[in-house]
Specification:
single chain, elongated, LAFE_0H04610g1_1, Spore Coat Polysaccharide Biosynthesis Protein SpsA, Chain A, alpha/beta, 336 residues
Length: 336
């Protein structure tokens, strides 16, 4: 016993010295924080705000985005009538959804007011305005590589997916150039002198009624600028606007059907890759897995297309908004 006592005593002394050393270090750190508490408070506040609201908002990511999201809204109060409370809420939810997604991935976001802009006394051009908005946005973001158009009644359901990983990195395997398997408009399958080996500048989808322009991507290129000029040709617009029920959609379909230079730069994505439908849309195709949103397969975007024609836009937006909130809310959000 006597021989072990000095050794145990030395251990106790060593522990005391280590404890005293650590205590003095903590004391010095605490004293330093107290002396510079304002600086520490400012740094903590900046980090917290940047983390909570997203780094791109504060310039820590590029201010010159390579991808710009164009969201069509009606901030001016409606198109043919004043918006009601539910319509304002649909717009708010949609904007919040796109803004959070853009911040998360460092994309640009621009809100475009699709108000009534009468050019002729006998019609309005809300649909045709889409082409003008695209041209305007290309001038605003000259260094962007791609523009993603989204209608207001859409929700991004998988915010963790970037466009790079979901679309661009697997574009060759995901897209198709010839309408041999799915051709709802029964367009001619091919035209002379079409070269499908080049790059793609326009990515769109098809639904049960033809081309769907509620969610599509356009590359920032000279080809795209020429397409927009032809698409919004005053002669074409003036002669056909009373015939083409879907306005800009019908115009693009006609151009694709007859112009080889447009066809060779256009590719189609599966509808559910960027444009899944709720059950009420394309009602004659109920049960067809090509069209409708599938939660288990983590469809990227849901588009309440045509909900204002006999369906409940607000109810559908609430349904998918609640689903999105349940699936993406983090546990720590409950503390704030």
């Amino acid at each position: 016993m006597s021989s072990s006592m000095p050794y145990e005593a030395s251990l106790d002394e060593e522990k005391k010295r280590q404890f005293t050393k650590k205590f003095k270090l903590v004391d010095r750190i605490a004293a330093s924080i107290i002396r510079h508490k304002k600086l520490f408070l400012v740094l903590f506040s900046l980090l917290f705000v940047a983390f909570w609201f997203g780094f791109p908002q504060f310039g820590l990511w590029s201010k010159d985005p390579k991808i710009v999201i164009i969201l069509a809204v009606n901030e001016g109060g409606g198109v043919l009538k004043w918006k009601g409370e539910q319509e304002w809420e649909i717009e708010r939810i949609s904007i919040q959804n796109k803004r959070a997604y853009a911040k998360k991935h460092g994309y640009g976001l621009t809100l475009k007011d699709m108000h009534t802009a009468k050019r002729y006394s006998h019609e309005y051009r809300e649909g045709w305005q889409k082409v003008e908005v695209l041209r305007q946005t290309m001038r605003e973001f000259p260094n962007a590589e791609w523009f993603w158009w989204l209608d207001q009644e859409t929700l991004i359901m998988e915010p963790e997916k970037s466009l790079e990983s979901h679309i661009f990195k697997r574009l060759d395997s995901l897209s198709y150039r010839v309408l041999d398997e799915f051709n709802p408009l029964n367009l001619q399958l091919d035209l002379p002198y079409v070269d499908y080996t080049g790059d793609v500048d326009l990515l769109i989808t098809q639904d049960c009624g033809g081309f769907n322009l509620g969610s599509f991507l356009v590359k920032n290129s000279e080809w795209s600028k020429l397409l927009l000029d032809i698409w919004w040709d005053p002669v074409c617009y003036e002669q056909k606007h009373m015939i083409w029920e879907h306005r800009e959609q019908d115009a693009l379909e006609a151009l694709y059907a007859n112009e080889a230079w447009i066809r060779e730069k256009t590719a189609f994505l599966p509808l559910r890759s960027i444009n899944s439908f709720p059950p009420g849309a394309c009602s004659e195709f109920q049960g067809d897995s090509r069209f409708f949103y599938n939660e288990k397969e983590h469809d990227f975007v849901v588009n309440m297309a045509g909900c204002s024609f006999g369906r409940d836009c607000w109810g559908e937006m609430q349904n998918y908004g609640s689903l999105l909130e349940r699936r993406t809310t983090r546990w720590y959000r409950s503390f704030f």
